[in-house]
Amino acid sequence: MNRQLSVKMSRGENITGFIFLPFYLFFNGLIIQFALRLLGLTADELTTNLVYFYVNFIFTVIAFRKFLSESLYRFVRRIGRSILGICWGFVVYIGLNVIVNVIIMSTVGVVENPNNEYVNDLFSQSGKIITIGAVLLGPLAEEALFRGVIFGFFRKKNRVLAYVMSFICFSIIHVWAYALVSPDWTILVNLIQYLPPTIALCYSYEKGDNIFCPVALHMIINASAVSAMSAGLV
Fold first, then answer.
1. Distance between CA atoms of residues 198 and 201, nearest Å
2. Among 49-53, 176-180, 221-225, 227-231, which is the least confidently predicted range?
3. Which residues of 44-69 are buried (b: 16+ CB within 10 A; e: fewer)?
4. Average pLDDT over residues 15-28
């Protein structure tokens, strides 16, 4: 049974989200770099990423304010279910992550994720900026788009399709640039590495019946990664 989500994006919010999606996936970073250079400001990787996180966060809050405000109200009002949704999502994430990593290791061996390496390099330059972006700002924008817009829209038509579309968009944003630089088979493995978080975040959204469940889970996942980088474990 495909039970409908309690809080849905309005038609206008969905349209805005689908218009914004290709910019978020492919062009925002380039546009921000161009704008910074036009203004005579530093356009290095750290500055560009920081501005990128803030711009996307502010746009998300403004463009989806009705959806987010209603969701936040219900998140607090039904805090028990919200926490349960986060916890179940985390359990699914850990379980699927172990399974996928075991399959990858037993079939193709160790495959480095270029996005993880890139973030790790930026973290070594400024842990504060990456922590702000990856833990505090990024999850809201990504969840509003990939779960709120994509997953929510397609779920009304077909639940499996919603998971598939959310996975495609979520994985593409993390690897497409590296595919252009180094187009080889390992990119396919990198895509699969984003299957566990996609399923976990979508499931958390459904289980908690609130977009702030996957937002919180996304923050926890990224905070764990940041902690690992800070401890020198990755």
1. 5
2. 176-180
3. eeebbbbbbbebbbebbeebbeebbe
4. 94
Cα separation of 161 and 61, whole Å?
A: 27
Select from 99, 114, 135 the least CA-distant residue to 221.
Answer: 135
Mean pLDDT of the chain: 93
pTM: 0.94
Q: Which residues neighbour 23 within 8 Å (Cβ) at sequence distance 6 or greater?
A: 31
The encoded tokens of residue 95 equal 């379980």
Tokens of 78: 């039904």
3-class SS letters over the chain: CCCCCCCCCCHHHHHHHHHHHHHHHHHHHHHHHHHHHHCCCCCCHHHHHHHHHHHHHHHHHHHCHHHHHHHHHHHHHCHHHHHHHHHHHHHHHHHHHHHHHHHHHHHCCCCCCHHHHHHHHHHHHCHHHHHHHHHHHHHHHHHHHHHHHHHHHHHCCCHHHHHHHHHHHHHHHHHHHHHHHCCCCHHHHHHHCCHHHHHHHHHHHHHHCCCHHHHHHHHHHHHHHHHHHHCCCC
- Hunting for tokens 């990456």 — which residue is that? 130
Which range has the worst mean pLDDT, 46-55, 75-84, 118-127, 225-234?
Answer: 225-234
Which residue would you say has higher pLDDT here, 149 or 45? 149
